[in-house]
Design a protein that fits this description.
Blueprint: H1 2-8, H2 11-27, H3 34-50, H4 52-55, H5 76-98
Helix pairs in contact: 2-3
Length: 106
């Protein structure tokens, strides 16, 4: 099963993106301005979504990723991403509220 997965995956592209993302994570450990952090977030998002379609290895006919379009999601992959991000946000908000934090306050 693993060999079938690896043969369908563009490992070179994914490996390069992984190294770029890892490098950005290491640089985040230093003292950075808010604008620098935003730049890193943009670079990491670009690297991640650049190879996202390579990570989809089954049902390629139904799940083709070309670009992120969250509102409104225009294809199956973006619908799925938006749904999953909503679930994650709900879990994060629940965790914050369960320890007495109010996420709406800033």
């Amino acid at each position: 099963m693993f060999l079938v997965f690896m043969s369908k995956l563009n490992t070179d592209e994914v490996r390069r993106a992984s190294k770029r993302i890892s490098g950005s994570l290491k640089r985040l450990q230093s003292d950075l301005s808010l604008n620098s952090l935003r730049g890193f977030e943009g670079d990491v998002a670009h690297s991640y979504f650049h190879v996202f379609d390579h990570l989809i290895i089954s049902q390629k006919k139904d799940f083709i990723f070309q670009e992120r379009n969250p509102r409104p999601p225009l294809d199956n992959v973006n619908c799925l991403l938006s749904f999953l991000y909503t679930l994650v946000m709900h879990d994060v908000l629940s965790a914050l509220e369960s320890v007495g934090l109010v996420p709406a306050l800033s």
